[in-house]
Amino acid sequence: MSAFRDAVHRGDVDAAVALFAPDAVFVSPVVHRPYVGRDALRAILTAVVGVFEDFTYTDAYGDDDGRVLVFTARVGDRALQGVDILRAVDGVLTELTVMVRPYSAATALRERMAALLTP
Questions:
Q1: Is the pTM of this model over 0.85?
Q2: What is the architecture, at CATH level 2, of domain 2-117?
Q3: How many CB atoms lie within 10 A of CB 101?
């Protein structure tokens, strides 16, 4: 779990994605259906690195099977707080769920991510 945190802090998307199982699931804070697979996760994390400003993890809770990483960031002029909920099986990450607040920051995030991810 610390390898994921360190990769994200460095902005190293490939290193972060390599920690996940091939069929890993990403649950978005702004899209109702989960994304499945490393390719989807890579596209999302790449966009996030470009959208979040001043991103930093501030706390961590959990154990080897699951961890909650608390973070702060900005999207444009909107400050946000969020959590990355990581699940693992036998040391391999299997799921990443992201939640953010407040609603105005989540809306700004959705708009910026949609612009980057929509073909």
A1: yes
A2: Roll (3.10)
A3: 12
Convert 23-56 to b/e letters by CB count within 10 Å (16 or more is b).
ebbbebbeeeeebeebebbbbbbbbbeebbeebe
**91 token code pair:** 């040391």
Beta carbons within 8 Å of 39's beta carbon, 6+ residues apart: none
In this prediction, residue 111 has a pLDDT band, given cuts at 50, 70 and 90, of: confident
Does a cis peptide bond (omega within 30 degrees of 0) precede residue 102?
A: yes
Residue 77 has pLDDT above 80, yes or no: yes
Q: Give per-residue pLDDT as tens, 21-65.
A: 999 999 988 777 899 999 999 999 998 888 899 999 999 999 878
